[in-house]
Amino acid sequence: MGDPYYGWLQAGLHLSGPQGGTSFPDVRGHTFARSGNVYTSQAQSRFASDGSTYFSGAAGDRLSTAASVDFILGRSLSVSFSLRPLAWPAAGTQCRLILVGWNSDASGFVIALAEDGRIGAYVPVGGRNALFSSAVATVGAWTDWEVSVFAGVATIFRNGVQTGFHAALDMPDATTTGRPIKIGGDNSGYPSVDSSYQGYMADLRYMPMAGRNCGNPAGDMTCAAPAAPFPEVLDLYPRKGRSAAPAVAVAGPLYKAVAYSRRRIAQDVENGGAGRIDGTTKNVGSPNYPVSRRVRLHRKRDGVLARETWSDAAGDYHFEHVRHDIEYVVTSHDHTGLYNAVIADAVTPVLMS
User: Fold this and answer.
1) pTM above the 0.90 mark?
2) Strand partners, 62
3) Pairing label, strands 143-150, 77-85
4) I need a surface site. Which of 44, 61, 318, 322 has the fewest CB within 10 A?
5) Domain that holds residue 333
6) pLDDT in tens, 189-202
7) Using alpha carbons only, what angle is made at residue 53 by residues 91 and 135, rounded to the nearest 5 degrees?
8) Do 257 and 191 sit in the same domain of this protein?
9) Does residue 220 form part of some domain?
10) C-beta atoms surrounding 218 within 10 Å
11) Average pLDDT over residues 301-313
């Protein structure tokens, strides 16, 4: 099933790959380059032995990308990631795991690992308040984190359980200038915040302007921890059916000597009926764009395949003359292998006119 929040994603790095890999692809197309001794490693995997990205903890270890307007922040955001630290920062220091913008920048934002293993979030400029978790990252074990801010209401989750809450977290000032992103450490020149991350990181998602807070701006106590890498989604867009040719052809005049030109359909005694389902297949992007993909129609009650087709170049697909009195499940498969299959559940046909 596709991720309903994928459309808000502005940077998505699985941070997985082969042993010694030095490529860190972003599903949104931004280029993240390494500094120092950063590489993908098969020594530790958060999900299904796919590896993760290793940071040695040496000064200058980080990933970074150029400034982009895609990274501009506002009063809402959601950032999630998995960590397996090998050590916490030295006493009196912290590691800026993720820095959006620049040090002492009122339009930037930091997610930090403190010297005692807590995760925090704040604007990197003096006088702003901050939120730090009550639980800690675990040395030598994976923990999953999400920092979610909805209209200034901030929550931090560790392994799906709320571990920090702030009713009015100071957020970045408005700007129209693009922000860069650094991952794993800062190079601000201030030793107290320049500690480099030592350990492994996986599955980083950055969604500015789209704070989830698990659907509750007052802060939930739980938020489902990830069971697999975040999905890259091919979306289905079912839409209301439109008028089509009647299922029963109208007889022509008796005096015509040729067959009536309207095409008749073969009778489908199991799945046939007066229903119609229309929709569109699109790849999620900025903006979304239509693609031609294989689409299958299954009966919801028992999963039996009722119809199969391909959407056209405009992404449009149609299932006609299907039973109108039952619900269906529509699935779309990406033959290119770039995206996971997606599903639209409980689809009800409309009556053909």
Assistant:
1) no
2) 35
3) antiparallel
4) 318
5) 234-351
6) 888 899 999 999 99
7) 45
8) no
9) no
10) 10
11) 90
Judgement on whether residues 194 and 266 belong to the same structural domain of the protein: no
Residues 42 and 143 occupy one common structural domain: yes
Could you tell me if residue 229 is inside a domain? Answer: no
Residues facing 236 on adjacent strands: 281
Q: CA 208, CA 108: separation in Å to the nearest integer?
A: 11
- Coil, strand or helix at 70: helix
Inform me whether the pLDDT recorded for 330 exceeds 50. Answer: yes
Structural domain includes residue 305: yes
Sign of CA dihedral 276, 345, 46, 32: positive
Q: Which pLDDT value is given to residue 313?
A: 82
Integer Cα distance of 164 and 147 in angstroms: 9
Judgement on whether residues 178 and 256 belong to the same structural domain of the protein: no
The closest alpha carbon to 53, from 226, 187, 205, 199, belongs to 199
Separation of alpha carbons 92 and 193, rounded Å: 9
Tell whether 224 is covered by a domain: no
Q: What is the pLDDT of residues 95-124, one digit of tens each?
A: 999 999 998 888 899 999 999 999 999 999
